[in-house]
## 1
Amino acid sequence: MKRYPKDIFLLVLFIIFINNSTFSASGQTQYTLPNIINLSLKDLSSENSENKTVKQLLGSIASNLGRLTSIAYFFESSPDLSLIECPQKIISIDQAASITFFVKFTTSEKPPSEIGSWVKLVVRYKPDYEKLLQYVTENVSLYPIEYERNRLLEEIKKNEASFPIQTEGFRLFLRGKNSPSSPNSCLKGSKN
Amino acid sequence: MKKLFFIILFSSVLFSFNNFALAEDHPVTTEYSFIESYAPFRDIMNKELGPGEEFAISANGLNAYIVKSVTVTDEQQLINLMGASSEANLTDAQKGLLEVFRFSKSEKISQLKSYIQPPDKKITLQLNDITGYEDEKKYPTIKKDFWPRLAKNSTIVMSAAPYLHDGKNVSEMLPKVLSHELGHVICDSRAEPSGYGSDGSHYLNEIIGPQAAFAEGFADFTRLLCFPEEEKEYRGSLNSFLIESQGGKYVKLGLKELSGKDLLNNEGIDALILSSLAKEIPNGKDAIIRCVQRNNSQLNPIEGFLYYFVKENPSLKDKVCEILKRETSNKLSDDEISKIFNPFGNNTNTFLDLTSTMNSKPAMPKMYQWVDKNGEIHFSDEPPSPNESGVIMLSPSPKGNPTIATYSEIHVDSKSSNPFGE
């Protein structure tokens, strides 16, 4: 692995950045839907924990817009991990509310997956379509172009009528040999 | 009997050969890419990169990602890489990526790929999984950073960024995006600097730079070739048009406010011209794509393509004129159309010279749009009085830089950047 002195490294990255900007042919722009749900998983196991075969995770599901209903969830993991304890059933989450829960996995002798050791939370839910329509309709400053705004509103109505249940997920990569680190643990106070 | 046997044998060999020719596919490497780390630029720069990892800098330049890529060999491997034991357990966004992978193996895409030049050009289809990074409060540039596009080295960047939280619609829409991006690979045209305006983005009904409009219009054309049912939606969205001001605000204009030449600077109109040509001319699709590739200087506007197309197919000139007039709502005058097919007069310039000439000429008489103190909108060829606010000059400057988009010089007063209140 080649490493560069700091200044040269910055220069190389800057050139890559400029190069990418110049050569990119960006796809067509369109309005996008707001974030409806926030999911997270955090590894609570420490290096010093006595039982190294058990991984305890803290998960959360939060509603970002309206009341989320018909919630169903499940976990998947890389072959080296097995679920031993999962949270109670959740039916709905009110607007701006969130629930947190603990999940336990045991590690086994099986090797991790091709891309490391991970746990994935998958949530099926019904968005609050009324609130979603209201959000897009009322936030004219966010969605100023009438045609695009209407297209988005039609999209929401179509989803509600045809496929009201959505599926979203969050994957946590557990630290270890050949495993990438988790999104949250790498986020060190972004200033945006 | 022996004769019949040889005829059957010959036919079989011919049939097999044709099938082989169809089955012979352009090499495309598919990669599954996922984000391993995201942090401020200064923190991430100290990390060592492992196999398959690379840095990606966020659009604002303040943060960076470490993205890991793995080559995809088959559907089941992709499903497993996305963290699911079966397709049913994928998220909506991941199902969209799976559909892209499937569509990349389809006959429609194989047909498009057969036009890629040179035939051994290496293409990478990058399926970016941004699961866990959708929250724009935590990752403010995530959509922009992973918005589908054609990046350098013929890498088609795909992700569900435009369709997050959009349920099953992701799977329906993402293959359409792939057919658009593949159009960029085939055409290889380049937008002029600032061709997309100050925000760097483009809507289907936006008036953009001439070269940008043709590059995007061609990509939209390849999308229409794969999904012809979308033409109705295209036509429906082209009743009004958007013009971006320098501040990135958009102004809506109707057909009556725009000239025929302005309409040619819209990707949707350019796509419909190409689509109509493909449908109404025998072997139209093939003739269009081959003509674009033979004459592609990477700098052509649609006028450049039409000039070469008629030059190669002189007997089709009347048909091309008819389509051109129709798709620009009869806004192009006979003189303007004549100049497209005979741009040099008696001169023997190249079309590259013409591109500069066309861009430097104003497309229409100088017009002004402004909002008076009572909030009323005015259109006039006379400038408003100095006391008026919200002045939007609609015409380009006569001294326009030939490589700058026609509408990059619109000026919008900060007091009223959007008189339509949209």
## 2
Amino acid sequence: MSHVAAVKRPSLPPEDRKRLDALRARLDGARRHFVGYPCNQDFDYQELTPFLDYSINNVGDPFGGSNIPLNTHEFEREVLAEFAELTHAPQDAWWGYVTAGGTEGNMYGLYVARELFPEGICYFSEDTHYSVAKVLRLQHTRNIMIKSQENGEMDYADLRETLRIHRDVPPIIFANIGTTMTGAVDNIGRVRAILDEFAISNAYIHADAALSGMILPFVADPQPWDFADGADSISISGHKLLGSPLPCGVVLARKSHVDRIARSIEYIGALDTTIAGSRSAMSPLFLWYRLRTLGREGCRQIVERSIGLAEYAIAALAKRGIESWRHKNSITVVFPKPPPEVMRKWILAPRKKIAHIITLPHVREDIIEEFADDLAAAFAKEKP
Amino acid sequence: MKQLTVLVPNQPGQLAKIAEVLAAQGINIEDFDVESNGADGLISLTVDKYDEAMRALRDAGYRTVTQDTLLIRLEDRPGALAAVAMRLKEAGLDLRSMHIIRRVENVSIASLVCSDNVKAAEVLTDVLIST
């Protein structure tokens, strides 16, 4: 028998090691000023490092069993159960999975809606994230944009009139539970009331609760947004409020809807309705670890701290003569669009005449003070 | 020959700015048309390098619409887009998407994609901005 040599353990050439060192230094430098995007940087997952030694894969339905024992399905199911409780999902009548992020969750919700109502029209507001238009195009779902109010919330008068005109077509409502730019929440209670007014029973509401889906369960007076208020599916990001080294999220849907889809795609020989094939087994582990170490009380503290920081930011900016604001229960602080040098340094995403910071726990008071100083100085320089 | 439409503020010098952006990338403007309405301006361009022009204008911060899309102008009132969709439906056309691009001074500019844009343009002549 001929001898086959084992594969040598690969090692990194010194010049490439230097590149990794440089990358780490760059990331460390950028982290302090990463205030414009909703990604909590304040976490510690060192205890999970040993699991990087395994090739693990959560392919398929987390509730469906798997031929690959190297998975974390058990942990994924626990994560989903926790989110189901937080979103008031109907007991034993929900289904879900851990996604690669909010967009996949939205894609799943719109996919379920599209399968249930192939002739439906999707309505979404002007303030909806651009990825939704992409998903709708990909899925060949007919769609009409609804106006937004000045504050970023859906214009219910426009929605009402639109539904009145198209009352014979099943509506698929894409509700923003915290818009990207201002954190505005489309009120699902009001949407349901309009549907009831026109006696439209064939309707579907998907809630994009990327960031706010982990805020609203922990505030005293949340806007109507979850399954109890009439949502049919909900997408929540894991890397936003909780924080994670990998983008991730969860999507949950009413089980009756998912079962109908599973039946309709039975012809392909698989009842797995997840969008992806291979799925990360690390992301569920991160989420599980985070939820278990924090507990509900820890999550509540993150939310309270973040809202406190938002109030702090508004006061710090006001002290320097800069007007800023936030929506109820939002940690998105909105202010006039700054000059380019501030945008670059603080990694801000502007839209039209506004920009924002998102006061997750890593955006500490000292960072807010430095930011407010920079912003005030830049605005002062702009004045004639 | 492909055309693209750029939305600009209705201010002097906009065409010159766009020409500068395109010239910097070696793109030639072969034909152009300028239309203004209230606070908005629309510059329609025919260029020799279509995709490069789209990229250059996007990078320069301009909102650009391709000729695969119809642009319409409507009064900014509840249900205005839905009413247009209904007109298309009554004409036997299938609406794919309709997006608001800009709302200024009680006027909405929206883009739409339909199963047959040529027929849709005929149906919507009263609100059509460009094809």
